[in-house]
Every structure is written in structure tokens, then in C-alpha cells.
Amino acid sequence: MPSDTDQRLKSFRLLQMCSRLQDGQVINKADAAREYGVNERSIQRDIEDLRDFFGSQMPTHDVVYDAKARGYRLTAQFKDMLSNSEVFAVCKILLESRSMIHAEMGPILGKLISRCVPEYNKKAVQELIANEQHHYIEPRHGRTVLDKLWELGQAIDQYFVVEIEYQRIKEPQLVKRTVEPVGIMFSEYYFYLTAFLRDVDRTTAFENADDANPTIYRIDRIRSIKVLKEHFHVPYGDRFQEGEFRKQVQFMYGGRLERIKFRYSGPSLEAVLDRLPTAKVLSREGDSWIVSAEVFGKGIDMWLRSQGDMVEVLE
Question: How confident is the model at residue 244 (pLDDT cuts 50, 70, 90)?
Fold first, then answer.
């Protein structure tokens, strides 16, 4: 029967080997036997014990023999987790979005890589994004947005009325608004809150007093948020459809719903259809296409002007 000392030594050995496997290290039987002063059969029994442990406590993981590394390593079945390529894609999207300051972007990228990629593949993903991360240019507003996103998201989910202080674009002053928040969206570097405004004279505050769509607020310009102890009610059939609204709004400018028709003669019709999800090709005329779309607000005017001679507005 093993002595208490032998049991303690084995427990220590198992804990240390378990820690090494979780760190992504490879355990070579011969090397481990020399290190711990036991024979290779003992190390093999330890590996079987560890395999049983991971099988019962972490069903997605297994201790397998890696012939190339000449040792045992801990692997995971990543069917329900992000693969290396998926993590890489998400990291690239985040970096290209330029949606957060360094202090928020950096930890998110680090957590994505550390949580979703096997330890031994981390370095490859880190190297692929290292240059872009080093030269990352944060948004000029320089403000954190994550806490605001979550607080507003909770208010939306529970239908709470919210009071905000908002920095307007045209006037360098704060305005107080009481709103019914209905959605959070992202476009062109910024997060936005869509909300229905309360207690305001629509004839003076809006270009279109009959506009039934929510007002759009850039979240980094919201200076303070106060969630009131008041719920608002939205009938299920009238609930705000973020996806549908997003198809029709350009550059997050609100306004009237309009139908536009234009001739496009540029090199990539596909890019136009991706930019305007409601767009439909009516016909083709030589090297150009006649396109129509339904859009909200003045943002479409900015896009049309940016296309130069490639776009001719017909109506």
C-alpha cells in the first residue's frame, strides 16, 4: 500500500501535470519520469487519471498523444467554440471598426484570443493582428462606451424610460432629453441609441413633425444616463424592428422615408447593393444600371454625392 508520502508526491505530480496541460504544454513520458523520479508506467497511469478527470469535469477536452511533439497535450473539441479563423475574423472586424478607445479595444482582443483559441495557436493569431493593433487609431471622441452600451441595453430590454444629457452636434451645449429607448445600432465608427423622444415640441424640434421613427443619438455624446423607475409600453405588433430600420437608414441620419431612383455606371454594382440593402435593380442600360431604393433621411444625399460621375439621380 502506498505511504502517505507517496500519495502526497503523486497528488503534487498530478496537479503540476494538470497545470502544464492547461497551459498548453506537452508532457513527454520519459522526461516526466526523470523529473519526478518514477518510471514511465507511473506517468502513463497519471495521464490516464488526468484523461478521466478532464473527461468528467471538462467533457469538451481530452488528453491526446501528439506524435509530432512526441508527448501528450490537452486538446478541446471546438465545435461549439470559435475556431482560430473565426477569432481572427472577429478581431479584424473589431480593429477595422475603430469603435472603441485603446483601453476598451485591447482587453477585448486579448480575451477573445485567450478564451477561444487553443493555447498553442495563440501566437499565430496574435502575430496576424499585431501590426494593425500596434497602429490602431482610436476614435477622436476619446470616450468609453461599453458601460453605456450595457446600461442602455438593460433599459431597452426592460422597457425603462431614460433621461439623458446629450452633447448636440450643431450647438456646443448639453441638452436634457427624456426618451423611450428601443434599440442600439452601429455604423461608421460609432454606436447609436435609437429612442422615442418624450415631452418635446415636435414642430420646433424636428424638420418633419410627423416623423414616426425614433430619434438617433450617438452614444459617445451621451454625457449622463439616468434610468427612471418608469416603464413604457410597446404593443408587440408595433415594436421597433432594428434590422428593418437599419436597411433604410444611411450614415445614421433620420428623416423622411423616401424612394430614390438613380443610374449607376461604376465598377461594382455589388458594392451599391451592399451599401443600400433595400436597393433593387430595375433594368440594365449598356454599362449602367437603373436602381431604386427606400431610405430614411439625408444620409443618402451624402452617399450619392460621394459617388461623383458614377451616379446620376433620376428621381
Answer: low
- CA distance between the termini of the chain: 92
Residues 123 and 99: beta-carbon distance below 8 Å = no
The count of structural domains within the chain is: 4
CA separation for the pair 171, 159 (Å, rounded): 30
What's the domain range around 121? 84-134
Same domain for 236 and 185: yes
Indicate whether 174 and 227 sit together in one domain: yes
Alpha carbons 112 and 114: distance in angstroms, whole number: 6
Q: Among 36, 148, 60, which residue's Cα sits nearest to residue 101?
A: 148
In this structure, the number of other CB atoms found within 10 A of the CB of residue 50 comes to 18
The residue out of 134, 155, 172 marking a domain boundary is 134
213 within domain boundaries: yes
Provide φ and ψ at 265, rounded to 5°.
-125, 25
Provide mean pLDDT across the span 288-309. 82
Q: Is this model's pTM higher than 0.85 or not?
A: no
118 confidence band (pLDDT: 50, 70, 90)? low
Give yes or no for a contact between 137 and 98, defined as CB atoms under 8 angstroms apart: yes
- Express each pLDDT in 182-219 by its tens digit: 989 898 899 999 998 887 666 665 555 555 678 889 99
Q: What is the CATH number of the domain that holds 213?
A: 2.30.30
286 — pLDDT class (breaks 50, 70, 90): confident
